Amino acid sequence: MAAELTAHQLIDRHRPTLDQALETIRTRAYWSPHPEHPKAYGENGSLDAAAGKAAFDALLGTRLDLGQPGTDGWVGGEVSPYGIELGVEYPHVDLDVLLPAMKAGQRAWRDAGAEARAMVCLEILKRIADRTMEFAQAVMHTSGQAFMMAFQAGGPHAQDRGLEAVAYAYAEQSRTPDVAEWTKPQGKRDPLALTKQFTPVPRGIGLVIGCNTFPTWNGYPGLFASLATGNAVLVKPHPRAVLPLALTVQVARDVLTEAGFDPNLVALAAERPGEGIAKTLATRPEIRIIDYTGSTSFGDWLEANARQAQVFTEKAGVNTVIVESTDDYKGMLANLAFSLSLYSGQMCTTPQNLLIPRDGIRTDQGAKSYDEVTADLARAVDGLLGDDARANALLGAIVNPDVKARLEAATGLGEVALASREVANPEFPDAVVRTPVIVKLDGAKPDDEAAYTSECFGPVSFAVAVDSAAHAVELLRHSVREKGAMTVGAYTTDPEVERSVQEACLEEAAQLSLNLTGGVYVNQTAAFSDFHGSGGNPAANAALCDGAFVANRFRVVEVRRQA
Amino acid sequence: MAAELTAHQLIDRHRPTLDQALETIRTRAYWSPHPEHPKAYGENGSLDAAAGKAAFDALLGTRLDLGQPGTDGWVGGEVSPYGIELGVEYPHVDLDVLLPAMKAGQRAWRDAGAEARAMVCLEILKRIADRTMEFAQAVMHTSGQAFMMAFQAGGPHAQDRGLEAVAYAYAEQSRTPDVAEWTKPQGKRDPLALTKQFTPVPRGIGLVIGCNTFPTWNGYPGLFASLATGNAVLVKPHPRAVLPLALTVQVARDVLTEAGFDPNLVALAAERPGEGIAKTLATRPEIRIIDYTGSTSFGDWLEANARQAQVFTEKAGVNTVIVESTDDYKGMLANLAFSLSLYSGQMCTTPQNLLIPRDGIRTDQGAKSYDEVTADLARAVDGLLGDDARANALLGAIVNPDVKARLEAATGLGEVALASREVANPEFPDAVVRTPVIVKLDGAKPDDEAAYTSECFGPVSFAVAVDSAAHAVELLRHSVREKGAMTVGAYTTDPEVERSVQEACLEEAAQLSLNLTGGVYVNQTAAFSDFHGSGGNPAANAALCDGAFVANRFRVVEVRRQA
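^ inputs. structure came back:
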């Protein structure tokens, strides 16, 4: 079959973007080819917000037939945290038919080489980017994110992370040349001469196990890293967040076909409610790479049991912010209030424990006692979320009943500094929208330890009174070592304390944000520049994105001949 | 303490070498800074052969006190395969004292940065290189390698592999800048601006578990990769091959001290006979990286049980050469004869199974039947080893009684095409020197399958009659997939057969040498250019050396602040 998209066309279209991505992962300066302003959409073939909404609405109640081999039924049943039944049906697969079919196209995909694979990946991302507004709706109505966040995090930011993974994958595969001439002098005798060919070869099939809260943002790095390194990729979405990844698979299959490759290099494995196919899939011999985002318990299970695969996990952690002193009290409170509120704290990067000296902190507005800091932070959150429209736009919806139950239980853990409030959503009356709760705990009381040393995913934070900055750093170290952390924050004007927090983070391998008081938040990372997780503490065994994330997804086979 | 060796001195001395290594791992052309001609030694501070021998002799019967904390006794007992009792004593360690002491210097080592660490590693390698002739004796009298091989493989080639690992480690750590300024436009508002610091941080302590046959060659990559990425390194040598690695540790400790670092960043863990400390060590929480060369069973155990560590293993495989046709029959026989003879076949890369069509092969000297090929190869080995002096120089000594027992048992497995012969060593009368055995087996007989599908480490090869080239490729695939292979060779003039062998190697991730008839052998790989193993089949989970070998030995911690 003649490809509709030739390699040359794709190189013309995408090589400059790849080159810029390669440059940026070295400089780690700001860059993104994916606009994060809604106004940028609607031109150059991309859908605007209305068209994206219309495209999403047209999907509701339909059957998404991906044309996959081994389809033995149809599954669905997603209900939006905003109350809509999606009613989309996806293929259920017979693995014994699908997995062999996914291997059929691997030789051609391997032989295409790293650059051609990168170009196809960038074309997939481009098609997704053009439908960003449609994906925004799909992410919103599966994750419960508010529209603006579903658009940004689920659209351009997720596409950035996918592109970043492609860039790392390409760079890694390009470290060894395709061919080398090797000539070794032998004194007076003729030199030894060999011609050596080096071929990146895939490991097999990569499995992406998606999560409920960030199906695209957390799914794209593994998907594109595996695909760009020559592997086929099977996507197993979270049963409550299938649509964004099913659309992704559909786009990938279309682009692969148009570029002359086998569409079965990318496939979807949706499941029946309660079927739990992840364990079965994860230990299949064909699955050689697994990318997982989700609970610590299942992540640990994968690491222990999926021994035939390279396993990349992002699990859960306990994120800490040390509040020791600040020269911008107002900025600090505003920044923290936003961090605690965004997506109702349902981010793996949301701060949970705010460690505050019981004797209070120094600020540009004078000394503030522990109680004052806690009360002022509560007021800042109240102020930020006082207007219901703004609250809805920031909080989004509670993603599932477990989060709601944890939020309700949190009030029993200690004195409530800020009570959670129910926010009505006029557009989606069934949405469960809640403001965050802040509970006071005492870091010197053994009884309180169980609460603040366990992850409490959702809009729950603990204002933990500590004896001193040193005590705070000790709790931070302990918590990162035992429970892991995706993020650490600290506010201090004391160079000694800053050094001490920094040293704790270096030793425990945690990513640290210092004195953020403006428009950057501890729970946000930017692709091409910030690492998401460190891969060095229990919260995650990999970072997004670095050499280690891609280097073992392929191997290099050398064929040498006498020259 | 003021360092005797300043960073500037070390950069002046070694940066050009590092740069050349960095360049060569990209081009994969021939290069080595370590001469492999004995004549090159004795100048510029290096020991010549006689001085190296004298230095080695002076070590015999002494106690090698490394000044390590936690020394609770002395162990030794190495007996050379050439019959000499080495009588060297090494410190036995109390791990509960030594391991904490090894962590004490890690902060300064981390803060020194990637370049300074690389420079210290290169200084260690330089000191070792100057004592190459002493190390040659130590390797010879622990591995049983003949002198020339002990010198080359244990000296310059091992140093090359160490330097290669340092280069990869440096390149990997340098992919992210130390500091980045990140400025994100915000339309009409002020841009967001952050200053980001990136620090490579070590995982902890790396454990190197050495092997009997190539203590330095197989030990240096892991040792230097871990050290260069900021980790401390504990070296657990094979009880029969302690001296080369103990000397290495001694040099490393000296250089670290002179450069102002804690010598305990590198330490030795020698053991009492039968103590078996590797299992204890491998599961200690302080050990976060393990490099292992040895048996498949213990390698598999490590991969399954040392879950707190990154585990890099080189285990055992079954190496195959397909003999289908050749346009240089004489060259092929000579090349194969050398490969089978070198170090009595005690290399993880030595061919074991020679797959030969039962209907014979096409050659430049006409058609040759299976029996003729087998007999001609036997004659070629006989010719190569006919002279006892030459035989001793090529074969070395049998490393241990297990290898001798396997050699003796091999004659019972099938018709013997070439019998093993005992070679007297006039210099070392106690050395066990044996020429290789070649046994004929039938690839169509299920009874023979058990023999040729199991690794038979030592001077034993099987001439396996196969039905066709296709049958040979099928056996090759099966054997690589099930048992792994460090090397694959093939002789063919048929482009179709060549493609088919090549495809099998690409799919099963095995390193292939085609039609070698000159002075390069299937069992040899050159640092900076050839990969040793692929990391993609059961023989080894890592390749020497690539990005994956170094990328996960450290993590990058980011500290970001508002600019």
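The domain at 320-514 of chain A is CATH 3.40.309.10 (Aldehyde Dehydrogenase; Chain A, domain 2). Residues 55 and 134 of chain A are 6 Å apart (CA to CA).
thumbs up if we can close this ticket
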